[in-house]
């Protein structure tokens, strides 16, 4: 890579007489003869405009021997006695002849801003909003856990059985011949067998007949390929471009270094590939009628009661019938934890249901969240009120 360097001469402004844009080679103001000092921004040099894309200074480079020698002399120092600026390689003040002391300050300049500054060190600090959100989530989570623990703590309360309720249903089903339709390849002839005492039946597939062609579904058939194209973009090298950096030398001069670097451009190209094309075709198959047997409900009886002994409804069955029984039991319970509340038990078996009798005193384990966790007979005294506050 070709490297080019230039020395650019800066300019300064006299704060004594307000003369502006004095070349750096002048250590004294050409108008009022005051020496350039550190104070009043006199030694803050201006190097002119910078090209935004390349970082190149727009000002011409200097070829003047004296200027190049001054640029090479190192950073300026300021006289302790008269504050005048002096060449870095001189030991004596050009203005008052005082010697340079160990306490003499050297000129330090800020880095010159160029078009391509080094990427600013990004703050990697933890985002504050994330911190707050995290703390919030933790507090909320802790609160939920606390609430869950509190809610699961149980207390014992006295109660009693208020009422019992039962419902018994019997459904009579009959094994009946029905006509159905099915796909020929899914049908296998099987002889039907009638139930004995409602058991051992076989539905069967009999008299497969009347087969006709019907559409069963669709399928995708490849019919060839088609070229599909789209425009895409890629980055390609497209010549070189100049990139420059500038370093201030601390004495009114700046050294600019420029390189030619590979330039990348976006290029649009056409991306093509073959795609298989499909056509949707109907699929046909043979659909047939056949005979089989199904259980059909022909009758239903329901009996229900409160407090009394549960009974089953009577239903007569024929030789091809069967009976299906269903039982539902409810036991309503009241308990008091300050106010009177009700709770419903649903026993699954008749034996369990029969163990609950109206008026039986109970003890209930109830969690803080209001969930009844256990009901045991015995203990406790009867509740006073009959206020219902839900299950
Ligand atoms: Zn002046
Ligand atoms: Zn001096």
From TrEMBL:
Domain RanBP2-type, residue spans: 72-102
Biased composition (Polar residues): 366-376
Coiled-coil stretches noted in the UniProt entry, renumbered to this chain: none
Annotated keywords: Membrane, Metal-binding, Transmembrane, Transmembrane helix, Zinc, Zinc-finger
Location of region: Disordered: 366-391
Transmembrane segments: 129-153
Signal peptide positions (record): none
Alphabetized PROSITE patterns for the sequence: ZF_RANBP2_1, ZF_RANBP2_2
GO terms, molecular function: zinc ion binding
Protein name: RanBP2-type domain-containing protein
């Amino acid at each position: 890579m070709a490297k080019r360097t230039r020395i650019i001469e800066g300019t300064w402004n006299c704060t004594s007489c307000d003369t502006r844009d004095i070349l750096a080679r002048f250590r004294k103001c050409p108008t009022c003869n005051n020496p350039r000092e550190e104070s009043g921004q006199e030694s803050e040099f201006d190097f002119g405009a910078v090209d935004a894309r390349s970082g190149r200074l727009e000002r011409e480079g200097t070829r003047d021997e004296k200027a190049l020698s001054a640029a090479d002399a190192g950073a300026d120092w300021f006289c302790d006695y008269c504050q005048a600026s002096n060449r870095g390689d001189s030991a004596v003040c050009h203005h008052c002849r005082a010697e340079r002391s160990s306490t003499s300050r050297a000129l330090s300049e800020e880095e010159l801003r160029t078009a391509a500054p080094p990427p600013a060190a990004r703050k990697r600090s933890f985002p504050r909003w994330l911190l707050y959100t995290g703390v919030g989530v933790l507090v909320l989570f802790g609160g939920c856990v606390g609430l869950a623990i509190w809610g699961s703590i149980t207390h014992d309360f006295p109660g009693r059985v208020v009422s019992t309720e039962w419902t018994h249903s019997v459904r009579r089903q009959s094994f009946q011949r029905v006509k159905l339709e099915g796909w020929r390849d899914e049908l296998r002839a099987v002889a039907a067998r009638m139930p004995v005492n409602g058991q051992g039946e076989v539905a069967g597939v009999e008299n497969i007949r009347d087969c006709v062609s019907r559409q069963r579904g669709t399928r995708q058939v490849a019919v060839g390929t088609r070229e599909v194209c789209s425009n895409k973009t890629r980055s390609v090298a497209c010549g070189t471009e100049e990139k420059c950096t500038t370093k201030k030398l601390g004495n009114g001069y700046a050294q600019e270094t420029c390189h030619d670097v590979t330039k990348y451009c976006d290029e649009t190209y056409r991306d093509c590939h073959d795609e298989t094309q499909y056509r949707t075709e109907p699929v046909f198959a043979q659909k047939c009628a056949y005979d089989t047997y199904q259980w059909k409900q022909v009758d239903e009886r329901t009996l229900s009661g409160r407090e009394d002994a549960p009974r089953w409804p009577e239903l007569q069955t024929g030789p091809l019938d069967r009976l299906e029984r269903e039982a539902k039991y409810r036991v309503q319970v009241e308990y008091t934890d300050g106010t009177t509340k009700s709770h419903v038990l649903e026993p699954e078996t008749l034996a369990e249901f029969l163990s609950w009798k109206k008026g039986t005193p109970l003890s209930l384990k109830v969690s803080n969240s209001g969930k009844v966790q256990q009901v045991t007979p015995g203990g406790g005294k009867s509740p006073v009120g009959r206020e219902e506050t839900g299950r």
